[in-house]
Amino acid sequence: MSSHHVIREGQEPAIYLRNSNSIILKVLHNLLEWSPYLIVNSETISFCNAHGIKPDAIVNETTDDIDFFIEKIPYINNSTDLDRIQDWLKNKNCDQLLIFDDINELKSLISGDPLFGVIDRDIKYSMIRDNIAKWFPEGQRLTLIKSEPEQKIEYIGLKKTNQAFLVETKGLIKLSSNNFFYLGEHLE
Questions:
Q1: Which domain holds residue 43?
Q2: pLDDT, tens digit, for every residue of 67-118?
Q3: What is the C-alpha R_g of the chain?
């Protein structure tokens, strides 16, 4: 990155700390270097307080004991926390959200929405509509999660191991399927 690169608000994906069990502090700190919006809930606010991290907003049904300077994302009808955050982000001209949570808990809520990414401990998941060609370094570990049990995913440039896939040689890998799937990049 050149020294004259300017980051404007909303350019980086916002971060939503939805589940503190999915947070690895080093991964979070690396993402916070880019100054994204940081959103918490009533469970993860205490994680932030314990680690000296200042959130921008909280999605919460109550306003008890919330710092005056933290914006409250209002509860509207029967909307989910993700719906409320998405509306809030539209007003901030930010259209992407990285959610710290268990991918298995979120799959049904985000079901194929490319605006949501998920970080589950040390794996960053992105939704892929049907195919991708992307450069990776040799040895990069990747995880694939299907959207359907019988889904077939074809790949070039990867070798399957017990728990994951490994990039065989640095360069482009290719993945394709007849439906969306999640590509997990291990953040090592």
A1: 14-121
A2: 678 899 987 788 889 989 998 999 999 989 999 999 988 887 887 777 889 9
A3: 18
In a domain, 5, yes or no: no
CB atoms inside a 10 Å sphere around CB 179: 14
- Tell me: do 144 and 112 sit in the same domain: no
Angle at 183 between CA 159 and CA 80, to 5 degrees: 160
Q: How many domains does the chain have?
A: 2
The answer as to whether 86 is a domain residue is yes
